[in-house]
Amino acid sequence: MIIVSACFLNIKCRYNGEATPYTWISNWVEKGLAIVVCPEVLGDLPIPREPCEIQNRTEGHFKIVDNTGKDQTKAFLIGAEKTWEIAKIVNAKCAILKARSPSCGFGEVYDGSFSGQVISGNGVTANLLEQNGIVIFNENQEDDFLKYYNKLSIEEVL
């Protein structure tokens, strides 16, 4: 089973109340091979909401704040934990998550200055899933995802 960011399915759950649909991703959900989640909504953040970024990154410590300075760390951690619980229940092997998001970003995220600059790092949900053996992709990695997916056995897929 695959975990998929809900915003890829025209579900308007992003911080700005919009979606970023991708047909190649929604096809996996339509086939019954993917579960849709939005960690930020699972953490009880509203739609729309102020944009958030990770700040004060040091080894094992961070804070996620919105652009008004409000600390939203707890909501992001709750959403990550709930997403991990779903991943365990469905025996997920991989996830396709929204690039650069403070929840779902993998490999790079915004730098915490709200300036549009990116740095190396992971969002809290992507990080938790990866730590627990889930292979992470983003919407720009269709070819990499297909290569990975095609190597899975039928038992791993289901």
Using brief descriptors, characterize the structure shown.
alpha/beta, 158 residues, four-stranded parallel sheet, two-stranded antiparallel sheet, 6 helices
How is this fold's topology laid out?
Elements: E1 2-5, H1 23-30, E2 34-37, H2 39-42, E3 52-58, E4 61-66, H3 73-89, E5 94-97, E6 108-110, E7 118-120, H4 124-131, E8 135-138, H5 142-150, H6 154-157
Parallel strand pairs: 1-2, 1-5, 5-8
Antiparallel strand pairs: 3-4, 6-7
Helix pairs in contact: 3-4
Organism: Fusibacter bizertensis
Protein name: DUF523 domain-containing protein
Pfam family, one: 2-thiour_desulf
Q: What does this molecule look like?
A:
It is built from six helices and eight strands, in the order E-H-E-H-E-E-H-E-E-E-H-E-H-H. It is α/β, with parallel strands linked by helices. The protein has one domain. It has a four-stranded parallel sheet with strand order 2-1-5-8, sandwiched between helices. Strand 6 and strand 7 form a beta hairpin. Helix 3 runs parallel beside helix 4. It is globular and about 45 Å long. The mean pLDDT is 94. It comes from Fusibacter bizertensis.
User: How would you sum up the global shape?
Assistant: globular
Estimate nothing, just give the exact number of structural domains: 1
The profile of the biggest β sheet is:
4 strands, parallel
The number of E-state strands comes to 8
Q: Termini separation (Å)?
A: 5 Å
Low-confidence stretches: none
Number of helices: 6
Report the C-alpha radius of gyration, rounded: 15 Å
| Neighbour order of strands in the largest sheet | 2-1-5-8
SSE run = EHEHEEHEEEHEHH
- Classification by helices and strands: alpha/beta
Percentage of β-strand residues: 15-25%
- Helical content class: 25-40%
